[in-house]
């Protein structure tokens, strides 16, 4: 499974979401609240073997932005 497929899978599983991931933003759906956000961050860290910086967790505001943030950790999506 590619990193993109893993990334998409995490979002779909975390939020039980089948919509357009490219347009998905924090608090854009009810389940992506503060608790959902932290669950998403934990899933990303576990899947990609990284530890996200607090500033990056705060800045992780959309599916698209997440790709840029993960690149800082050498996770190319």
Task: Name a few traits of the molecule.
77 residues; mainly alpha; Non-ribosomal Peptide Synthetase Peptidyl Carrier Protein, Chain A; globular
Give an overview of the whole structure:
- The protein has a single domain, classed as ACP-like (Non-ribosomal Peptide Synthetase Peptidyl Carrier Protein, Chain A), CATH 1.10.1200.
- Helix content is 56%, strand content 0%.
- The protein has helices at residues 3-15, 34-48, 54-59, 63-71.
- The longest helix has 15 residues, at 34-48.
- The protein is globular.
- The N and C termini lie close together (12 Å).
What is the secondary structure topology, with strand pairs?
Blueprint: H1 3-15, H2 34-48, H3 54-59, H4 63-71
CATH class division: Mainly Alpha
Assembly classification: single chain
**How much β-strand is present in the residues?**
under 5%
Q: Report how far apart the termini are.
A: 12 Å
Average pLDDT, all residues:
97
Please give the CATH architecture: Orthogonal Bundle
The domain tally reads 1
